[in-house]
Amino acid sequence: MTCKETQNLLDAYADGELDWSSELAIESHLQGCPPCSRVFASLKLLVSALQRGTLRFNAPQHLKSLVLSGIERANPVVRHSFADWRWVAFAASIVVIAALSGLLATRVANPSVETQLLGDIVSSHVRSMMADHLTDVSSSDTHNVKPWFADKLDYSPPARDLSLQGFPLLGGRIDYLQDRPVAALVYQRNRHLINLFVWPANESTQKSRLVLRGYNLIHWEKSGMTYWLISDLNPEELTQCARLLKE
């Protein structure tokens, strides 16, 4: 299945409207195609936003008046009966729906770089826990982890073991965010896994803490590197982990 074919079916796939063979074909394509995976992640974010109902609203009065004025200019003899007002309200709703649909279609087709990045981070975190690929190098010894990254990246992430503070380092792996390799350091707090994604900073973001798809994320930049910490761990303990890593 090609990227074009996959993206044409993503809406139906997200709504569970495809037959099982089509679903399997799309899932197989998404596993091996980062661009399509990012589009699907953005689509799921959009669906989640729509389900919250924050984008649903009634047509405002001034829009009804604007539609009515246009009708009067086109046909001055129109009489404003109760039925007319019902028709105006319906027409105004159609205008709002059409405008909103165009806006949402644009957002799906052209998701922001930050939206794509957040989707990639969450997807990578989830994949690391589902597949047998949590770490490429399994060690709590930073003298083993740092050299392993140095041989595979053009930078060495500041790996730290926080076992004494209750956040033992499990190891690290190479992951891919926005089609580039990045370092992923894996920590643990009780039964909760924590991923720390690290790469040279080349963009800025206004977000420092947020919740996405049930996961807590913390972001900071230091010494020319950008850091994204993600886990289903509660915000207080994840903030403690971030504070220790920043020291």
Key words describing this protein structure:
alpha+beta, 7-stranded antiparallel beta sheet, single chain
Low-confidence stretches: 106-110
What's the architecture of the largest domain in CATH terms? 2-Layer Sandwich
Name of the CATH class of the largest domain: Alpha Beta
- Biggest β-sheet, characterized? 7 strands, antiparallel
- CATH fold-type name of the largest domain: Phosphorylase Kinase, domain 1
Number of spatially distinct domains: 3
- Average pLDDT reading: 80
The tally of beta strands, per DSSP, is 7
Shape: elongated
**Distance between the terminal alpha carbons, to the nearest Å?**
48 Å
Helical content band: 40-55%
Radius of gyration: 24 Å
SS-based structural class?
A: alpha+beta
Give the H and E element order. HHHHHHEHEEEEEEH
What do we call the CATH homologous superfamily of the largest domain? MucB/RseB, C-terminal domain
Please tally the helical runs, counting DSSP H or I stretches of 4 or more residues. 8
